[in-house]
Amino acid sequence: MIKWIMAMVLGGLLFVYGIFPVMEKEIVSNSVMEYYDCLCDIFQGDDIEELYQLMDMESVQSQNVVRSMKCLVFSVQYMEEMTGQVRDRYNIPYSISVTGFEKLTADTCKLTIHMKLDEDIIYPTFLANGDEVFILKREGNRWLISEHIWAGISVFELSRTEYMGDLDYNLIMENLDSIITSGLSQ
Fold first, then answer.
1. How many CA atoms lie within 13 A of 19 on its CB side?
2. With 0-12 CB in 10 A as exposed, 13-18 as middle and 19+ as buried, what is 123?
3. So where are the chain's domains?
4. Burial classification of residue 93, based on how many CB atoms lie within 10 Å of its CB (0-12 exposed, 13-18 middle, 19 or more buried)
């Protein structure tokens, strides 16, 4: 009987300290993969609502990501409508390898990845070659992205700490119209 109890306790310890961190790393990695799949789906025309389920929306950076995706999708659709040139939004090959995982607290962790893009393809601004760091926090049974440190931040989100404000679609159209006009006059 005592051997059975010892085996159960040892098995429980192995689960908590051995297998569980591996499972948790996999769950966190899947959250980041789901984030990129979602960004690509939104770029292809899907609804942005799913993105809210993957990100810590209390984070200023997360709010800027949503804002930037709305701006990007609107801009691409507007340019296609105005120029008649349709961009291939369905061929977005990329590969991600997880290079690090660190548990910061019981409810936060850091995931480091390496993003590899094909150099012959022009990618949307939410993807960039290189190393990236994600800070995720647990909310219930999900891991939400609360911070993302990467090379494309200055091009896509513009800021991690300062909210970039609501979109002014008229200003976006004005800027795009001037780009179209200057492109036609060359």
1. 6
2. middle
3. 2-184
4. exposed
173's tokens: 């159209």
Structure tokens at 66: 């949503």
Taking the complete model, does pTM exceed 0.85, yes or no? no
Tell me the pLDDT tens digit for each residue of 7-60.
444 444 444 444 446 788 999 999 999 999 999 999 988 899 999 999 999 999
Buried b (16+ CB within 10 A) or exposed e, 34-51: ebbebbbebbeeeeeeeb
176 CB burial (10 A radius; 0-12, 13-18, 19+):
middle
First to last CA, the chain: 87
Rounded to whole angstroms, how far apart are CA atoms 94 and 186? Answer: 34
- The residue behind tokens 């991600």 is 96
